[in-house]
Specification:
With 177 residues, this protein is of the alpha+beta class. 24% of the residues lie in helices and 42% in strands. It has one domain (9-175): FomD-like (FomD barrel-like fold). A hairpin with a 4-residue loop joins strand 6 and strand 7.
């Protein structure tokens, strides 16, 4: 398993625990890539859902993936501030096809004032039963929900002041050389 190279444009593939594709982001520009962390940027990229429907993202976003943590973080730059959408997920892997992870349903939406809401608990419980998530996975996921909440409260990683703006400026250098 390699890692994406800065400046490269890649796809992001999200799967469900049963191995079925969940969602594909068509084009994300790599801003930093290593074995342990990937930071990418995209704007108005095509997203394809598992049923074939497509839509286009509405605003620029900076995406943060880590090989150790069971979540990824998307910082969306909107007129009234930065909103974050955090997916509880497996750590990422990268192959020549795409950056890939398993989406485990639970999400945290973070508002510009850093208040947050845990989403999709009912969907998580339904899928946990349907796809027989092992108890160890359930425990890991709930521990990572708490880790993510701590990051939000401590303004750590992508939640740090200027993190998203700094990486967005870097993204713009690839869009407007």
């Amino acid at each position: 398993m390699g890692f994406p190279i800065e400046g490269e444009t890649i796809q992001i593939h999200s799967y469900k625990h049963n191995g079925k594709i969940h969602r594909i982001w068509d084009a994300t520009t790599i801003l930093k890539g290593s074995r342990n962390m990937v930071i990418g940027g995209n704007d108005r990229t095509v997203v394809t859902e598992s049923d074939g429907r497509t839509w286009i993202t509405r605003e620029p976003a900076i995406c943060y993936f880590h090989a150790k943590y069971w979540f990824n973080i998307i910082g969306m730059l909107r007129e009234d501030g930065i909103y974050y959408y955090c997916n509880i997920s497996s750590p990422f892997i990268y192959d020549e096809e795409a950056l890939k992870y398993i989406d485990y349903d639970l999400d945290i939406k973070v508002f510009p004032d850093m208040t947050y809401t845990l989403l999709d608990q009912d969907e998580y419980e339904r899928h946990r039963r349907q796809m027989n998530y092992p108890a160890v996975i359930d425990q890991i996921l709930h521990e990572n929900v708490e880790t993510l909440k701590n990051w939000i409260r401590q303004r750590k990683g992508p939640f740090a002041p200027d993190f998203i703006d700094t990486w967005y400026e870097r993204y713009l250098t690839y869009r407007n050389p």
